[in-house]
Design brief:
45% strand; Cathepsin D, subunit A, domain 1
């Protein structure tokens, strides 16, 4: 199977909360559409510095991550971010990769939104067993 990309909407979760409290207007919520690599080998969602700056996401902590080559690197973690795909959404934090590195949609948001990769079409789809709402396994 080849690489799978999906158009994902990312929204500053702090802005969403301030809009709910009528501190800022709906039009002031920072959001953007990003074409992300759907990476089932990555647990976390990863964005790059450009996305972090455009969404003006605060740094929450630093966390170490192991790369595919086995090396361990420390990254900033930002959030909260609301992630939207079709009729699904979730809230996550994200590791910030340096520079213009490719953003990754990892296993945590994939599971949370109940989406999966269609192997023949090589695209991200809503789980056909639950087309109208996300369903989670609780055990």
């Amino acid at each position: 199977m080849g690489l799978v990309y999906a158009d994902i909407e990312l929204i500053n979760g702090g802005d969403m909360e301030m809009a709910r409290r009528n501190i800022i207007g709906e039009d002031e919520i920072k959001k953007m559409n990003v074409n992300m690599l759907v990476d089932t080998g990555s647990i976390y969602m990863c964005i790059n510095e450009n996305i972090k700056e455009q969404l003006q996401l605060p740094i929450i902590e630093k966390r170490k991550g192991q790369l595919a080559d086995g090396s361990i690197v420390e990254y900033n973690v930002v959030g909260p971010i609301e992630v939207r795909f079709k009729n699904r959404r979730c809230h996550v934090d994200a590791m910030v990769l340096p520079g213009e590195n490719e953003p990754l949609l990892g296993a945590i948001p994939l599971e949370d939104m109940d989406v999966l990769i269609h192997p023949q079409r090589q695209e991200l789809i809503v789980n056909p067993d639950h087309p109208y709402f996300a369903q989670m396994k609780l055990k």
